[in-house]
């Protein structure tokens, strides 16, 4: 695919990130007004052009389809260009969404990186959230509705998405968290063959949780087990628990069992199955004015309970941010998305990650930047967990007010890189040929 100054030209027919323009962004094709004698009336429909001499052509607004129809001219607006040298990655809660609704600047930000910007550039992007409890397809449908823009599963990572790769390792697993049967559905879709929920165990033996009774719907959806034949090989906390007391009791029973056999007790308390959490965020952003506790708090509580009951330290494994494995997974997903959607085979030089939680988003991005082959640039917004007036525990490379400020900063920073290269070429300070 031919490129122009870091952009790959491609015709785009869908609403998602399939057009990240980079040619315009960094000095690619710009739109110029045709001569007046080629213009059709009425002229009042023709957009005006900024006449300031210090404004470059690459900063002119791309004509809308309505404006094009008002021009009786054989000239056509150049195709949008896709950025092939940088990309974006977003956290969701506190960055794009809060309390189930889009943050005011979020919709405009998504339009901006899909070409509705002064440079006509579209930037490939993915979503990397610690949230979960639903299939990636369902989460994408929710986000598409909230942002009024199509989001595809190929550009989306939940906290539990990397757990998909463990389905071949374990056959019978206990899956905890989420609403109703949704996490069971997710696990089965991932390929886990025998998925057990706390509801199944309570239905089979109701005195497992003395103060927790199943609702009629829960009872009907749960599956009765033959506990003598069940051996739980691993425990997966897919989403936030809706019943801390009951879930922790059942998890403790499994952890203190002999090889995951419910009803047994290990004399050494070290024969139970491993436990995995989809993320470790202690707090997260909701519609409440203060952050609410999340899965990381459940993990801390469970570790404290285990220590109190057994006298031993519980070893747990967490996915999600800031774990390096999650960022490596994101790197692979971003590469595949750029290739499938934009025909870009090489990795971006820079990935801008926008988050609201210093302890997971910023820490993970900064630490991954130390080992990644390309640059991972952390941007912190103040619309979620982190609030202005406080010092972030893990400092980002850039702090902005909201998601729109973040994407504008990223685009402008990349534009400056291109202009700097052009200026160096003009001054003879570089040996690399650059097409001007």
From TrEMBL:
GO terms for cellular component: mitochondrion. Residues 1-16 have a biased composition (Polar residues). Residues 1-70 are annotated as: Disordered. It comes from the Eukaryota. GO terms for biological process: glycerophospholipid biosynthetic process. Transmembrane segments: none annotated. InterPro entries: CDP-alcohol_PTase-I, HAD-like_sf, HAD-SF_hydro_IIA, HAD-SF_hydro_IIA_CECR5, HAD_sf. Coiled coil: none annotated. Residues 59-69 have a biased composition (Acidic residues). It holds the Pfam family Hydrolase_like. This is Phosphatidyl synthase. It comes from Penicillium oxalicum (strain 114-2 / CGMCC 5302).
């Amino acid at each position: 695919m031919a490129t122009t100054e870091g952009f790959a030209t491609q015709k785009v027919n869908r609403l998602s990130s399939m057009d990240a323009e980079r040619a315009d962004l960094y000095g690619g094709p710009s739109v110029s007004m045709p001569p007046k004698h080629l213009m059709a009336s009425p002229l009042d429909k023709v957009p005006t052009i900024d006449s300031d001499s210090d404004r470059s052509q690459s900063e002119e607004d791309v004509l809308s389809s309505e404006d094009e129809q008002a021009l009786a001219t054989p000239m056509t607006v150049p195709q949008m260009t896709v950025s092939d040298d940088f990309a974006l990655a977003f956290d969701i809660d506190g960055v794009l969404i809060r309390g189930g609704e889009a943050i005011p600047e979020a919709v405009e930000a998504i339009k901006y990186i899909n070409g509705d910007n002064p440079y006509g550039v579209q930037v490939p992007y993915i979503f990397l959230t610690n949230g979960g409890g639903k299939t990636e397809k369902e989460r994408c449908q929710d986000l598409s509705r909230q942002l009024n823009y199509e989001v595809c599963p190929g550009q989306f990572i939940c906290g539990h998405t990397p757990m998909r790769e463990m389905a071949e390792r374990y056959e019978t697993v206990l899956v905890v968290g989420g609403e109703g049967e949704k996490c069971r559905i997710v696990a089965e879709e991932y390929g886990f063959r025998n998925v057990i929920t706390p509801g199944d165990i309570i239905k089979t033996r109701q005195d497992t949780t003395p103060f927790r009774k199943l609702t009629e719907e829960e009872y009907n959806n749960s599956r009765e087990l033959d506990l003598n034949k069940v051996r739980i090989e691993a425990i997966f906390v897919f989403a936030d628990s809706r019943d801390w007391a009951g879930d922790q009791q059942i998890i403790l029973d499994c952890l203190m069992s002999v090889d995951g056999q419910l009803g047994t007790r290990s004399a050494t308390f070290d024969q139970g199955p491993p436990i995995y959490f989809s993320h470790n965020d202690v707090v997260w952003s909701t519609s409440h004015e203060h952050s609410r506790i999340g899965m990381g708090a459940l993990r801390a509580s469970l570790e404290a309970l285990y220590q109190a009951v057994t006298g031993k330290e519980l070893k747990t494994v967490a996915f999600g941010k800031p774990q390096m494995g999650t960022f490596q997974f994101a790197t692979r997903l971003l590469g595949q998305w750029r290739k499938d959607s934009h025909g870009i085979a090489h990795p971006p030089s820079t990935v801008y990650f926008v988050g609201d939680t210093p302890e997971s988003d910023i820490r993970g991005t900064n630490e991954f930047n130390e080992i990644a082959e390309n640059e991972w640039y952390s941007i912190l917004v103040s619309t979620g967990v982190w609030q202005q007036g406080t010092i972030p525990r893990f400092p980002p490379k850039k702090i902005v007010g909201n998601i729109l400020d973040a994407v504008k900063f990223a685009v402008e920073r990349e534009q400056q890189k291109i202009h700097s290269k052009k200026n160096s070429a003009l001054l003879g300070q570089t040996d690399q040929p650059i097409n001007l």
